[in-house]
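User: My collaborator sent over this chain with a note saying "see what the structure looks like." That's all I know about it. Can you take a look?
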Amino acid sequence: MTDDMKKDWELSVSRHIAAPPEAVWQVMTERMPDWFCPKPWRVEIVEQDRRAGGREAMIMHGPNGEQIHNEGIYLAYEPGRRIVVTDALDSAFRPQGPFMVGIFEIAPDGAGTRYTASARHWTEGDMQKHKEMGFEEGWGICADQLKALCEEGVA
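Assistant: Without extra context I'll predict from the sequence alone. Here is the result:
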């Protein structure tokens, strides 16, 4: 598989946030329920063992009683820089139906911060399925919610 093929299987959203990286990281990690799901959905954090190999589990609740359980492990947790998670394994390292690797990164960007969220997929079909599920709109709304929280009171 070439690098071009792998890149084709990645979906990504990015936002400039007019707040320092430390503030963005703090909101990203300490206020996830406030931004991680497009409203009116909400997220319930079950566990976040923030270390490589640690469990990452949450339940997304929809406005009509829908529930989407999401469980996986952290592949990397680099404070102030990036979080990498996958649903390919559970916390006991048992394989489960892999769909993606999620990468959430921040970096200095001028007077603010560049936030980038990416989903890398095992197959082109999985990537297309995620796109059709509304990746760009849903993850874009989450990025906008994060941006708004980070920029509150910053001026």
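A starting point for your reply to your collaborator: The CA atoms of residues 10 and 120 lie 4 Å apart.
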